[in-house]
Write a structure and sequence with these properties.
It is built from twelve helices and ten strands. By secondary structure, it is an alpha/beta fold. The chain has a six-stranded mixed sheet, with helices on both faces. The chain has a four-stranded mixed sheet with strand order 4-6-8-9. α1 links the parallel β2 and β3. It is globular, with a radius of gyration of 19 Å. It starts with 5 loop residues before the first strand and ends in a 12-residue tail after the last helix.
């Protein structure tokens, strides 16, 4: 029986997924993608999980697509099977926040995978890049679309057209990464953040994530309208009432969320 390409753990209300193809630098094989999406679906449907962490290992996060598998694809095969669309679709379907923890390289599909996460924490040794141009192709899992939204047109265009990498500090300065920490601290810090997020009302967290994500898709006027509708919807939640009652209590107490 072949070894699993991912490792799944949990810590309190946090689900943890670790990519596990160390000899291939966690390259995105078809099997790894399938197992990753299965794990995401499992955590998404588990009410005891409030947030998800996706990470690699000390060598790197992900080196990108499996070049051997990809080299065997023709245009017709890639087109007919909508190659990598299932990866994008799988992440879009997850309402729970996903924190990516990046050690070492996140290149090509690995950089795109990182950008599918909602928050990125990076080790000081992390590097990000879209080197597809050096292989005679272009990013195909969101690199040309998400990168420009994360770091702006000029920097995104430079990375895509030159294939050059940026450091963790450069990624943080550009807005791609939320925090940069020493390698030995980054996972612990991300886990602390994930547990904090998971401690809040699950439906409110999901609404907040949806509202922020829609900001990338909608103009300001429509975005404000969308935000208002979700904001007003929270007024119907038991957790909204509990949050206000806990705040107004004398003395103020910690809210006890029921996730309803």
């Amino acid at each position: 029986m072949s070894e699993s390409t991912i490792l799944v753990e949990r810590s309190e209300r946090v689900g943890i997924i670790k990519l596990n193809r160390p000899r291939a630098y966690n390259a995105l094989s078809g099997t790894l993608i399938d197992e990753l999406l299965d794990a995401l679906r499992s955590f998404e449907s588990d009410p005891s999980i409030g947030a998800i962490i996706l990470t690699g290992n000390e060598k790197g996060f992900c080196a990108g697509a499996d070049i051997k598998e990809q080299s065997e694809l023709s245009f017709v095969n890639a087109y007919n099977q909508d190659y990598l669309k299932n990866l994008n679709d799988g992440f879009f379907a997850v309402h729970k926040p996903i924190i990516g923890v990046i050690n070492g390289i996140a290149l090509g599909g690995g950089c795109e995978l990182a950008m599918m996460c909602d928050i990125l924490y990076a080790a000081e040794t992390a590097t990000f890049g879209q080197p597809e141009i050096t292989l005679g192709t272009i990013p195909g899992a969101g690199g040309t679309q998400r990168l420009i939204r994360a770091i702006g047109k000029s920097k995104a265009m430079h990375m895509v057209l030159t294939g050059e990498m940026i450091s963790a500090k450069e990624a943080e300065a550009a807005g791609l990464v939320a925090k940069v920490l020493p390698s030995e601290q980054v996972f612990g810090a991300a886990l602390k953040t994930a547990n904090k997020i998971a401690s809040f009302s699950a439906p409110v967290v999901a609404m907040a994530k949806e509202a922020v994500n829609e900001a990338e898709e909608l103009g300001l006027k429509n975005g404000l309208r969308f935000e208002s509708r979700l904001y007003h919807a929270t007024f119907g939640l038991d957790d909204h009432e509990e949050g206000f009652q806990a705040f107004l209590a004398k003395p103020k107490r910690v809210a006890q969320w029921t996730h309803k």
